[in-house]
Amino acid sequence: MSRFPTAAHLASWAGMCPGNNITGGKRPSGKTNKGNRWLGEVLHECAWAAAHSRKTYLGAQFWHLARRIGKKKAAVAVGHSILVIGWHLLSRGVDYDDLGQDWFTRGTDPERRKTHLIKQLQALGYAVSLRPAA
Predict the structure, then answer these.
(1) What is the pTM of this model?
(2) How does DSSP classify residue 42?
(3) Nearest 5°: CA angle at 91, between 89 and 94?
(4) What are phi and psi of 115, to 5 degrees?
(5) Rama region for 107: left / alpha / beta (φ>0; ψ in -120 to 50; rest)
(6) Cβ neighbours for 133, distance < 8 A, ≥ 6 positions apart
């Protein structure tokens, strides 16, 4: 892994980093660049397999993204994540520790999540009153 100083270098070589060019308020194609064809195909297959394992971080990431950007683009994003995870595992010599399927819903700030959920209920027409749990 010493050939690639960062995970971004590996992702670029593999062709798994889509373009993000916004100029003048317009977004041209975010197509991935040409890279190692066989590695890209394997990462796409792994991403689709991860999509079927819903009790993992990668499965949750796929469905979290697929709602917004579509399944094919989500597969590219998850393939990129798999590649980055692989780089970190090989370069640091550590074991994989899954973040869990609730990573995207758990959030980091419970107070902010509580406020957000209250606002959602109020938007649906419910009156919300909070009291401590017994």
Answers:
(1) 0.72
(2) H
(3) 40
(4) -60, -40
(5) left
(6) none
